[in-house]
Amino acid sequence: MKEFGYDKQYDVIVAGGGVSGTVAAIAAGRLGADVLILEEGAYLGGALTGCGVGPMMTFHAGEKQVIRGIMEEIVERLKTDGYSTGHIYDTMQYISYLTPFNSEGLKVVLDEMTAEAGCTVLFHTFIGAAVCGEGKIESLTVCNKDGIHSVSARVYIDGTGDGDVAAFAGAPMTKGRESDGAAQPMTMNMKYLNVDTEAIKEHIRMHIADFSRHQGNEELMDTVSRFSFCGFQDEFREARERGELEIRREDVLCFETDRPREYIVNTTRIIDHDAVNAASLSDAEVTGRRQCRQLDRFLRRHVPGFQNAVLEFTGPRVGVRGSRQLSGKYTLTAEDILERRSFDSVIAHSAYPIDIHNPKGVGTDSRFLSEKGTYYSIPYETLYCEEIKNLLAAGRCISASFEAQAAIRTTPTAGALGHAAGVAAALAAKGDGDVSKVSRNELQKRLKEQGAYLDL
């Protein structure tokens, strides 16, 4: 166990040990920074290990892999340990490739990689306040089994997803949809064992007209090692009309994990709740479990292959798609994504589409890039604001419009953003901590040395 002390000043403190925060910590640690990760849970990985989220979507633009670096290292280690199939075709072709994985294996891989990078991790630790002075964060107030303490660093990375540290520090923030503040629905995922995959495939083949996502992709059902499917709209609508389901969604969405016949069901939809309000978030957990019970009954009655399946778990906590966003030096927009604007200060690429689950219920608005196999860029200026000089955001809480955030919120992109934040934090910590002063050329050089792909 690495020695820890509250009175020590770290080079970099990472708030939140989700994928973006963990990758940020690894990147900074590899550049020699003394890094402390603060995580409220008992393990790293965030939504992937704590919410039943999967698979990872997506590292690729068509056949081209555009997210690499530390995120790809994680996948390779999972593959080596037998915890992932690696990148495989999406049988629905919503995206080109997706990446199934084992969440328990991921916990261990992230433990190992942070230790190898020399990071200190403090689990079971909540952040309650930020103490600021002269435009910088001086310390964070934390609460855990030791009581209430302060921790300090030269540079801070907000990897909380909800922008907690940025908000506590008084950074300018936005929240939800620009027109009314509404957020995308939360989802409580479910995981099943012993699902009869062949029964599902046979049903889809016999009723292909009812499964638009699979039309034209039927051959992938036989050639790809793991199956994903979406459909059963009529059955879902009729169950809602009968009062058997309260879920304001139009279909069932399922993904086979790295383990054959094990499926993640991503179908509940918890609307009109606030992820940064404790009472509302608590009610969302209860609502999610209630919807899961309804959905379990529906699957067993109406979806072939689930009759003898074993419900392994409902998500240990509800999954949040969006809440607060930093108002940064630059705000990424839907136009930046759809028009594939280039940025000289690019720090990450992505090809995941704008994917907005209706904040008020039924419907999903997906907007894809006009040319298949292309990708968009994200500039460094989305990671920081001018008001708090030693703060970087990582993951889904970066500076982005509601629409743009719906594209950059998924795991591989969040990890790539964390990679950039970690390198930038390490570089800033060698100076006066002002993240705006980081040389873009040096940042990009260091990212490429760590395997990131940044070509325009």
UniProtKB/TrEMBL annotation:
Keywords of the record: 4Fe-4S, Iron, Iron-sulfur, Metal-binding, Oxidoreductase
Gene3D superfamilies: FAD/NAD(P)-binding domain
GO function terms (MF aspect): 4 iron, 4 sulfur cluster binding; metal ion binding; oxidoreductase activity
Organism superkingdom: Bacteria
Pfam families reported in the protein's UniProt record: FAD_oxidored (PF12831)
PANTHER family found in the cross-reference section: COB--COM HETERODISULFIDE REDUCTASE IRON-SULFUR SUBUNIT A, FERREDOXIN:COB-COM HETERODISULFIDE REDUCTASE SUBUNIT A
Name under which the protein is recorded: Glucose-inhibited division protein A
Top-level taxonomy: Bacteria, Bacillati, Bacillota, Clostridia, Lachnospirales
